[in-house]
Specification:
The chain is an all-alpha fold and about 80 residues long. The protein is built from 4 helices and no strands. The mean pLDDT is about 80.
Length: about 80
Amino acid sequence: MATLIIDEELARKLRRLAEREQRPIEDVLRAMVDRYESKPSAEQNAALESLIGMFDDDVTDLSTTVHETMRDYFKNK
């Protein structure tokens, strides 16, 4: 058990959320922390963003490409 000192506005918001969800404030805080921890970090986001466009070859419909590839493959057999 720990004591957390927060300002009155934040306490009011937490109480309102807890009442709306009909859960104890501790559960609301725990869920918020869990959600925050599961978010990707800025480094992870930057790594993912660096991949954007890496595979861009102006193909908008992969099924079309597969269809064309299969047609070309069997045409040459």
